[in-house]
Amino acid sequence: MYQEKIISPPSGYLTFALCLALLGASIFCFVSESFLWGGILLAIDIFLVFPGFLIINPNQSMVLTLFGKYIGTVKADGFFWVNPLTGKRRVSLKANNLNGQQLKVNDKLGNPIEIAAVVVWKVNETAKATFSVENYMQYVNIQSEAAVRHLANIFPYDHAEGEETTITLKDGAEKVSELLENELNERLSRAGIEVLEARISHLAYAPEIASAMLQRQQATAVIAARKLIVEGAVGMVEMALEKLSQKGIVELDEERKAAMVSNLLVVLCGDKHVQPVVNTGTLYN
Questions:
Q1: Residue-wise over 218-253: b if at least 16 C-beta within 10 A, else e?
Q2: CB crowding 50-75: b at 16 or more within 10 Å, else e
Q3: pLDDT given at position 215
Q4: Mean pLDDT taken over the chain
Q5: pLDDT-based confidence at 158, cuts 50/70/90?
Q6: Residue 183: Cβ within 10 Å count
Q7: CB-facing half-sphere around the CA of 179: CA atoms within 13 A
Q8: Which of 126, 153, 166, 277 is the most exposed place for a label (fewest CB within 10 A)?
Q9: What percentage of the chain reaches a pLDDT higher than 90?
């Protein structure tokens, strides 16, 4: 595994002045009809001086090799001169956005879902990015897709019936993003890539089960609402019986209490307006 080595080559301005001087001298030789010396000076200028110039822009780097051996990486921006026989490969240090494509995978419960992620990454170690993998940009794409698939397989899309403590893809966004970022950093460290941020950008059930899951969610919501209504109605009936008993408004035996409780629950728990019925008799006739 190659380790990055930062080097600082000499400034190129002095060499540039030498380059201009050699060019002027070769022109002078040609004018003086000293073609041999003019050709020698021009060849030195073109093949031994000029190819060594190096311009590094901000947030750029240059990986240098000499006869197949890694020499070092220039990360400082500026104008430099290096050995003209040195091989040069420019590597950007800027942050990159990877907008992953939508993947169709199965979650932990086996439900088919669609998932995609956005990854912000940059090259941290240029030597690994250049020599450890064939194409580091393609490597990032493939490994990001593999990490998203693995993440979808170890977590359910939503809470299972009666289970509320498990981390899910839908509700555990912060935790899921943290796990995805850690896994990507581990996978991409071989290529010298640092992941700055990773988040789920798209999450949905696959079309073939989306309608069934929507019905399930609606049924769950209705049951939860009914449960709340029943709990409130029971509390109101209990309070009504307690108030009637405390104030002595009416004395109710067990049968009349049961009838009253039944009527109140029908009124309070019904989803439609109740039509009152006037009873002119008694419960016993």
A1: eeeeeeeeeeeeeeebeeebeeeeeeeeeeeeeeee
A2: bebebebeeeebbbbeeeeebbbbbb
A3: 62
A4: 83
A5: confident
A6: 19
A7: 17
A8: 277
A9: 50
Question: Residue 125 — φ and ψ, nearest 5°?
Answer: -125, 110
Q: Are 206 and 106 in contact (CB under 8 A)?
A: no
Yes or no: say if 61 and 136 are a contact pair by the CB < 8 Å rule.
Answer: no
Q: Provide the whole-model pTM.
A: 0.71
- Name 62's bridge partners: 74, 90
- Dihedral Cα 41, 47, 52, 57, nearest 10 deg: 110
Q: Residue 281 — left, alpha, or beta (φ > 0 → left; ψ -120 to 50 → alpha)?
A: beta
Show me where the domains of the chain are located.
12-90, 95-207, 214-269
Tokens 């943290």 sit on residue? 178
Per-residue model confidence (pLDDT) at position 219: 59
Residue in this structure with the two tokens 């091989």, named with its chain if needed = 87
Answer whether residue 254 shows pLDDT above 70: no
**Cβ-contact 74, 141 below 8 angstroms:** no
Q: Which two tokens stand for residue 178?
A: 């943290």
Q: What angle do CA 93, 94, 98 make, to 5 degrees?
A: 115
Q: Which residue has the tokens 């060499």?
A: 15
The reply to whether CATH 3.30.479.30 applies to domain 95-207 is: yes
Q: Can you state the angle between helices 13-31 and 35-44, rounded to 10 degrees?
A: 160
